[in-house]
Amino acid sequence: MVTLIDGKAASKKLRVELAREVETLAQGDQHVALAVVRVGDDPASEVYVRNKRRACARAGIRAVEHHLPGDTSQPALETLVDGLNEDPEVHGVLVQLPLPAHLDEAAVIDRILPQKDVDGFHPDNMGRLALGRPRYVPCTALGVLHLLKHYEVVIAGQRAVVVGRSQIVGKPVAALLTRENATVTLCHSKTRALDREVAEADILVAALGRPEFIRGDWIRPGATVIDVGINRLPDGRLVGDVEFATASSRAGAITPVPGGVGPMTVAFLMHNTIMAAKAATLRHRAPV
Ligand code: GUN
After folding, report:
1. Whose alpha carbon is nearest atom 11 of ligand 1?
2. How far is CA 212 from CA 120, 185, 237, in A?
3. 272 lines ligand 1 (CB under 6 A)
């Protein structure tokens, strides 16, 4: 019988623990705050930011929202980021992506203070992760690893195949699994014979953003399948990057879409923000 990996339940448990940590910090007069910047009116970003706002409210974290018009200039956006970097009452700074096409996304991410980059997208944080000395790790990647550990999936020595090489998911997941001593293959849209690579996976992480691209009959019997994809079909249904119906008859454990990795991402954003608040407390403590 296949195990359904329940991200909703796992994230609920984590969120309770995080809310407790926020409460403890508040008792020491440290009020955790996350700044969320959105530019323009991308409908998906609006939904993501709403989810982040709700998660902050539930955790007791103050959300400082900045919604800028779609024609905001690069200097204006960077000035806002500079101000948030300097604000001691803001612990995490997140600029929702994608930005409108006229803006230089990389330059904006580079501008966020690495100590406040709770998305983990700054080159400093990505570099640290690549070196095996992580500080802030991208939230979805943390969510994937947490689900594997929560379900006691053996990682060390196993063959892990990650499909998708994005900065947000594929690359950091591959780095985390490597740190956990898996043998990792990082595949992408140009990988030759992807079916054969997938068939080798004890652990498969699908994060390429194409509906049901990975066929169920490619899955190695008994494998653990983590599907990061969330794709809306023309008929309105939400599906992952893996063909769930067939895959779930072969896998040992599999995430549903929705209700798998999705809920973990926001929980780890709260986690990273709390980490940033704690680190700020240590930095600001007067030397003795
Ligand atoms: N857009 C889609 N996912 C993310 C994310 O995790 N962080 C940010 N900042 N933008 C995103």
Report:
1. 97
2. 28, 20, 12
3. no
Share of the chain above pLDDT 90, in %: 97
- Active site annotation includes 167: no
The domains of the chain are located at: 29-113, 139-262
Q: Which atom of ligand 1 is nearest to the CA of 138?
A: 6
Q: Is-catalytic flag, 82?
A: no
- CATH code for the structural domain at 139-262: 3.40.50.720
Tell me the fold of 29-113.
Answer: Rossmann fold (3.40.50)
As given in the structure block, the two tokens for residue 223 are 């494998």
**Letter string b/e over residues 244-275, b meaning 16 or more CB atoms within 10 A of that residue's CB:** beebbebbbbbbbbebbbbbbbbbbbbbbbbb
Q: What is the pLDDT of residues 236-275, one digit of tens each?
A: 999 999 999 999 999 999 999 999 999 999 999 999 999 9
Q: At what angle do helices 7-27 and 43-59 cross, to 10 degrees?
A: 50
Neighbouring C-beta atoms of residue 88, cutoff 10 Å: 9
